[in-house]
Specification:
With 215 residues, this protein is mostly helical. It has eight helices and no strands. 67% of the residues lie in helices and 0% in strands. Keywords: Membrane, Transmembrane, Transmembrane helix.
Length: 215
């Protein structure tokens, strides 16, 4: 129960920091809350745990993610991102990685999805926290090139674990981890990892890269 509550609080912090970092856009906040409520309500009924349907019900999450990202990007593409909040968004990848490790111990995700496997996201989370401390407390100028390379690496690391997670889930396209598949993301609250946290992290990286390119 404790790990569930912790993950829900982490998800809400993702929402808060993203909202603050992207200009406090109330429409973005409203759409995010509606999507969170919709996907949570579906998962609480056990909707996604039925993996035998054709097409897979998890497809709703994938299509929803693309729509969610595209919609928010159109509203935020001209926004000046506040980097202190962008760093806090990325720093939250640390508690997410800790959660994944505990889920592995509970046999709900495979080891390959943790920092003991092929998931390198914790590096981005820790470095984001370091960047936040350096820039906010010690007023260090991190430099455009450093931030650009860091954001690109962060995006690549995220795509890496997304692919691993999808191929480890008990879906028709499963290719990995048959002995201990990725079942956690089929139920609440962990459905919020692929359906909300991943899109928020992707958007934060994309907007950051766009802003650095423009500047």
């Amino acid at each position: 129960m404790g790990i569930n509550i912790g993950f829900i609080l982490t998800t809400l912090l993702f929402l808060l920091f993203f909202f603050l970092g992207t200009g406090r856009n109330k429409r973005v906040l409203l759409i995010s809350i509606i999507w969170l409520i919709l996907i949570s309500s579906l998962s609480l009924t056990g909707f996604f745990q039925n993996t035998n349907t054709i097409p897979p019900r998890f497809l709703i999450v994938l299509i929803g993610n693309i729509t969610f990202i595209a919609f928010l990007y159109t509203k935020l593409k001209t926004v000046d991102l506040e980097y202190r909040y962008a760093m806090l968004v990325q720093a939250l990848r640390v508690p997410v990685e800790i959660t994944l490790y505990f889920l592995f111990l509970q046999k709900q995700v495979p080891e390959i999805m943790t920092f003991n496997g092929l998931n390198f996201d914790i590096i981005i989370g820790i470095s984001a926290l370091i960047f936040f401390i350096l820039s906010q407390l010690f007023k260090v100028n991190l430099g455009k090139k450093t931030l650009m390379v860091w954001n690109i690496i962060g995006l690549l690391f995220l795509m890496n674990i997304v692919v691993i997670a999808i191929l480890s889930a008990p879906l028709p396209i499963q290719q990995l981890s048959f002995q201990q598949p990725n079942i956690a993301v089929l139920s609440f609250p962990y459905i919020l990892l692929p359906s909300f946290i991943v899109p928020i992290v992707i958007l934060t990286h994309i907007i950051s890269i766009k802003q650095l390119t423009k500047s």
